[in-house]
Fold these 2 entries.
Entry 1:
Amino acid sequence: MLRYLAPLALLFASPALAEPAPPNQQTLVEAELAKAPKGTRFGLLVVDDSGKVVVAINPDQRFIPASNTKLFTTAAAYALLPGVDQPDAEGATQVSLVPGKKKGVFNVVLTGRGDTRMSSAANCQQDCLATLADAVAARTKVAGDVIGDDTRFPDQRWSPGMSWNNFGSNDATATSALSLDSNELMVKALPGTLGKPPLLVVPPYVTVRNEAVTVAPGGKANLVLEHTVNSRDFRLYGELPADAGEWRERIGIDDPAHFTAWTFAAMLKARGVKIAGKIQTSHRPVGLVDDPDWRARNAVAIDTARGGPVLAGLVPPPLAEDIVIINKVSQNNHAETMLRRIGRVEGTGSLEDGLAATRALYERAGIPREGYDFSDGSGMSTYNRVSPRAGVALLRWVDGQPWGKAWHASLPIAGVDGTLKRRFLGTPLAGNLAAKTGTLNATNALSGTFRAASGKRLTFSFFANDVPNGESAIPAMEAALLAIYAAN
């Protein structure tokens, strides 16, 4: 379902974007950027509400956008997914009882449909896995297999171009149609006896081989959790000072459907349900992405848990609320799942279908095709590229959509919330600038809007690539934006 109005070309004239920036202001900005770490490559485009260029630095060069990718994914979700501001019935997780091998014993099938917000927390109030466990326990006290079914999407857990060192972290947890607790767990470590391993608190779903050591007081914790991909195994190594206090690390789950089924089985046992079978999963082979039989069966066979009647289902909050989560806190897994859901509108729910649908949307919106390429929906892929002109074009196009104000409200606000909560504090841009951040290896990004000293509203897209290792371009970028604020 396409929910957008005029293409970008009708919102502002493209010749205006070709105008050179005022020379004095351009010089001020370039002077601030010259203070950045040597070797950093910048791209910046700032325009006013008429489309007139305020500052332009390499506006048509392409940059790794990091989490600015989420701007494109979430705008596409508003435009293409039906009922974004309504309860998410389309994404509802369902539970069914399906006859098992033993007479009178039913297998329990959890069928995921793309909801990323289902929770197992003890204090859960909405979209709670416990609700489905209660429904099963009320029907039977013996269950066969407990099956996590995520066949609504093909089994493509990660997108191309993600860095290997991110696997196993909560930044790159696997994507699945059946998710729980954002597919994350917490590992904790406390200092042990000097020369001995730290004391670990490890969730029972995973194992951690502890090769770390407790060292003398002083200094910072230097611990690394290394992960074996497509497993539940981690290795901890490094040093933890005796006075370091508690160390925490959020880790990602490689098979969310299995993790959800495993957690559900534990909930059933706690409710007095005997599990007579095994914890199993049902994944959709990637080789069947274009199989027309899958296309024909999905609406019926998958949604009814392979023929079993739906016993109970959850209705998650509106997707608009998840878009706020994605943009405010830069939630990668939710963004990746959102792209797959876009791919389900007219396709199979594959990564390729999602990317194709968004490309077609951006073309209709008038965003310059040479200004972007995407391999994922979150920005974790180093294959993604965006030009400042394409970033501004997206933001300007969103301005003309009926959902534009709601989408802009999902962006972090400088000095107030999200990933900008501690930035621009004590400056005129605090509480003023609303923008999406982006941080990745050697990359900083920021794109959004703010009002200048004159009250004029400015739209900008700002990228820094090739930032030297261990350094940041953020101070120079913020100084440049403050100079632009003062000069307009």
Entry 2:
Amino acid sequence: MKQNKLAKELMKGSRLTQSDAARLVLESIELLGKRAKGLQREALMNLLRRVMQEGVRAVEAAEHTVTLREAAWASVEARKDLRPTSCRDLRHYVRRLLRVEGAGDMLLRTMRVADCKRLLAAAFGSCASSYKKGRAVLSSVFSYGMRQEWCDANPVARIDVPRVVEKPIVPLTPEEVQSLKDAAEKPKHRAMRFSLRLMLYGGIRPTEVSRLKPDDFHWEEGQVIIRPTASKTGGGRAVPLQGMRGLRRSERTIPRNWLRRWQALRRDAGFRRSSWVPDVCRHTFATYYAAEHKDLPQLQMIMGHRDVSLLRTRYVCPVSQRDSRQFWGTANQ
């Protein structure tokens, strides 16, 4: 009787009956199986106490999570030291993911492969290249979440990476090149003459040109050094300075508001923004360099590629010798 009275007193406020408590203990012993078999009362109590403590910790860990919105922006903040353009792209893809209805409020730990597939399809389903980039961004959010113990797994790792068939980039014709150069002769665009030649006759990417500093130019050696911090891929390279004759020393500068100036120059040259291919000047240089010099290993070094295979598959297009001679023949005009 005393034990029953004591048990009732202990169970007060727990909303459980003695029968409930007995059932839970018996279920625990059954689950423990051989571990609990044959133990004396005190040893069994200690084992059950340890099981409960570990169980509480496991439940707390399982409930420790955040929403996808919180995790995504925290992962962006953790990578704030990336280049400005990389940070901008990262934020852009995160916003597209979170625009999907209900996505931002999903708990990271509860998200499954099917949830991630649905989210990616809704945000990027119409474009394979965007889907591939969005998948990488979402995967990075889960990887960051795992380091913060907001989730235990990365479900995106089980989603296939889509195969992206790159469309060939057709180089500019000599006539199109001349249109750009003619536009650069206009007084309002003359500050871009130098930049245009670096892209056309050096194959330097637009973003790389905009990051160049005066100390990067070595005129006595006839080359410009693309620093790793300015390069798209993080690797430095030396690029010959070609097509620079006719430029005064005062014109050999990179102007401010570079991107706006570059867009205005293209527009005045007759190119629509919607149809302009961002790296077409780089592809144009590679195509005409290969046609003129027939030296892919040297071109590889100038372009900063790891091997020549990318040049063959993506950059070098067949052009006539007439077009090649015209391109290089007007380089210094």
